[in-house]
Amino acid sequence: MSTSEARWTRREVLAVAGATAAGYALAAGPAKASAIQTSSDGLVAGDVRIPVDDGYVSAYRALPEGSQRPPVVLVIHEIFGVHEYIRDVCRRLAQQGYFAIAPDLFQRQGDVSKLESVREIIDQVVNQVPDQQVLSDLDATLDWVRAQHAHPERAYSLGFCWGGRIVWLYAGHRPALTGGAAFYGRLEGEKSDLKPLYPIGLASGRLAPVVGLYGGADKGIPLESVYSMRKQLAEAGQTSEILIFPTAPHGFHADYRASYRELPAREAWRRTLEWYERFWRERPRH
Q1: Which of 161, 173, 253, 255 is catalytic?
Q2: Is 161 labeled as catalytic in the residue annotation?
């Protein structure tokens, strides 16, 4: 147990227990009482199973009741998995008319929800997940959603932290995607057999349009890296853009955590929805 964990108060310990019961990952720490809670009224929402090559992966999906050919959003979770925050994001999107689905991209490597620290999650699960497995699971999820009578062409991605990096990778893997939104996803890093590519290596290639949403006070993602990505995208003539919220820290959209910043979170969400609409309106029709 770390020093900071040892100093938790009784109230914080009880808050963590309550958060876990409500569906928040244990390692995320005490959930804020003011965390956004989106109703499922008027929605079809719940867990489903997605067929993949070696069996299935679990997913949470939400869509408007009675919707006809709704546009799709693949919601790509942070290191804490498909916990309540990600589920709520799916419901928020569904309330806007989207078929939002969040597959459990860590399922084969382990259940992160009960691990007690971020270090355990990274060492035991995140660092064991191959990028190729993730991209394949997202392909399978998109195929499954389209078979549920979702819109056959209008599909987007949305990811946070670990999932933000994947949004960029998926935009290169599937450039015909209508668009994507990457919240504070790492752009550079040490390559490995499991992670052979980082987003900055995609800047000059064929890429679905992504809006990157980054905090100027993010201590985990250097601004130099963000500026470098922005510059390379511009030089390559990409439609992708990067927005920087000067005072926002890492995790500024995570309303259940102390890192949440309401104003940049709201503005980033508005920009995300505008981005989705823009690239559907501008998409060439055949």
Answers
A1: 161
A2: yes
Distance of CA 194 to the CA centre of its chain: 19
Q: What is the CATH number of the domain that holds 195?
A: 3.40.50.1820
Sign, CA torsion 117/120/126/127 = positive
Q: The pTM is what?
A: 0.91
Domain membership of residue 246 (yes or no) is yes
**Alpha carbon 266 to chain centroid, angstroms:** 16
Query: Is 286 noted as a catalytic residue in this protein?
Result: no
Instruction: Give the residue from 171, 175, 172, 197 showing the smallest Cα distance to 186.
Output: 197
Domain count, the chain: 1
Look at residue 16 and tell me if it is in a domain.
no
User: Among the options 90, 218, 253, 255, which is catalytic?
Assistant: 218
Residues contacting 203, CB < 8 A, separation 6+ = 229, 232, 233, 236, 238
Residues 6+ apart with CB under 8 A from 223: 216, 244
Distance CA(235)–CA(159), nearest Å, equals 25
Report yes or no: 194 and 216 within 8 Å, Cβ to Cβ: no
Q: What are the average pLDDT values for consecutive 10-residue runs of the chain, which has 286 residues?
A: 36 36 82 94 98 96 97 98 98 98 98 95 98 98 96 96 98 97 98 97 97 98 98 98 98 98 98 95 62
Q: How far apart are CA 213 and CA 259, in angstroms?
A: 15
Residue 143, domain extent = 38-281
In a domain? residue 67: yes
Q: Is residue 62 part of a domain?
A: yes
Task: Identify whether 88 is a catalytic site residue.
Answer: no
